[in-house]
Design goal:
- The protein has 107 residues and is α/β, with parallel strands linked by helices.
- It contains five helices and three strands; from the N terminus they run H-H-E-H-E-H-E-H.
């Protein structure tokens, strides 16, 4: 996110650690909740959270299951066919990470 100018729009950015920590999406979300001071489940607070990822079956699904808004970026493993067949439906589908910046700049 830093390399395309997105970091300034987010309070917290978290992913898997290079040392193997937070390897599971649930662990990433728990770390974000900790940083954001959210006690799970707190649906009212989580409604304002966004889980952005390029894998519908891990990134987006984890966010949706946690109560966050799920945003799928089609620059990764998810193909249109996988998206169509998935029972998990993101709130928003973007073609590239660049579109995230374009949307944020209009807010």
């Amino acid at each position: 996110f830093e390399n395309i100018g997105l970091a300034k729009y987010f309070t917290h950015i978290c992913g898997a650690g290079l040392d193997g920590t937070r390897a599971k999406k649930a662990e990433v979300l728990e770390e974000l909740f900790r940083r954001g001071g959210v006690d799970r489940p707190d649906a009212e607070k989580l409604a304002d959270w966004r889980m952005i990822g390029d894998r519908i079956y891990t990134d987006v699904k984890s966010g949706l299951n946690a109560g966050c808004t799920g945003i799928l970026v089609m620059s990764g493993e998810t193909t249109p066919q996988i998206l169509a067949q998935s029972p998990d439906k993101p709130h928003l589908v973007l073609e590239s990470a660049k579109e995230i910046l374009e949307i944020l700049q209009t807010l």
